[in-house]
Give the backbone structure.
Amino acid sequence: MTGRKGVSARGEYVGYRNPPKSSQFAKGQSGNPRGRPRRSKTVAVSPFGDSEFDKMVLEEMDRIVAVREGETIEKTSVMRAATRAIGLKAAKADVKAYAAVTAKLAAIENRRRSEREELLRVAMKYKEEASWELARRKRERAAGPEIIPHPDDIDIHPRTGAVILKGPLTLDQKMAQDLLVATWPKIDRRSPQLLV
């Protein structure tokens, strides 16, 4: 018990970081006799790094629900229904929904642009190096493994930068193409249609 502010009945100072002796723990006695509470069981993690909660969220987003639109009821995933709801809110001039939709669209466009630029860079580098290697082999009359895809089978549109692959992309596809050409002599090399 304290009589005056800051002084206990025994006349000792009581205050910040100095509780009365009667309420202090005895020496050797724990302030938490039952110990630290056990943590919940560790959540299982998939090979992709997803926790149990992540898997539940993904499953829930794929769950099929019925959505009414006017007189029709459509079955769709929760993710598609939520995306549609945000889009409709944005169309009704909800500023937050509009900002979310435009930010997501910008992020998608930026990702696609960077992927196209990376594909163009890789295709141009591959075409240049493969052409150089074929020229070296011709110049030195050297042999080497087949270069697949052949650099002539990669077209790059000059205006859009689109990469168009015209020939086989793997050795299996090349072997199948060679077999087809060898067994069907009536195939016109200039046109993919059969000659009759």
About this structure: Residues 95-140 form the longest helix (46 residues). Residues 94-196 form one domain.
